[in-house]
Amino acid sequence: MDIEDAMMAEKRVLLKKLNIYQDKFERGNFPEGRIQINKNGRGYKYYQVIQKDRKITRKYLKKDKIEIAKSLAIKNLLQKQISSTKMEIAAIDAYIKRHPRETPAMTIKNQPAYRKLIDIPSYFGAECDDNWDKAEYEKSNKNPEKLKIATLKGDLVRSKAEAMIADALFRNGIQYRYECRLKVGNEYFYPDFIVKNKRTGKIYIWEHYGMMDDKKYISKYIYKSKAYVENGYVMSLNMLATFETEKIPLDSVGIDRVIENYLL
User: Fold this and answer.
1) Shortest CA distance to 190 belongs to which of 227, 153, 219, 218?
2) pLDDT value at position 1?
3) Which domains does the chain have, with CATH numbers?
4) How far apart are CA 35 and CA 237, in angstroms?
């Protein structure tokens, strides 16, 4: 189900792309036929190929017809992009169709009696623990004086962007831990948020990188990202990230998209 969750997010992305490609194709007002490109010394020759019934005609496109060649090239690539995107979506659908529909977390949520029978967290961990975000956990003790901004949940965070993320999670009923200690290889990190998918219980790290126009900050970002990847944290699969610079701040639309695609 972890993989299915990531695939569903990928499918949503592909569907949006497909709509964009199809809209461009429909609005393209492309010439009839397709393009044929032949190597000619150091250059190329372009032809417009038109098939009607069983008859194929090929017309050489001279320099004054280069716009037709460009238009046919765009048409060809858009057709291939639409076709390949549809194939990717079909492949995801085929996988999901054969994949289990219900995780232990979903079963427990639908039938609370399981909690009376067994100690769920001890057997199935955080993904099945409804009180996971309320339990005590080891937090970062770095620069506590910078924890100044209150969230709807009652936490104190370090920046307005983090408060925006925390409040969006809270409003959507998504469990999270702020700056919770996490072992990554031989080191300990304190990711901005560790969050749970509301439906499946799947755990994600969510890092907000808020100074991407600062060279020293970028060096730290690269080091941290490399450590995450080397220890199995893959973007979109079990890790999420948002970014901002001084000129391009984080906005609620970006936050909502992450939540919609991965956490609901």
Assistant:
1) 227
2) 43
3) 2-97 (no CATH), 102-129 (no CATH), 132-262 (3.40.1350.10)
4) 39
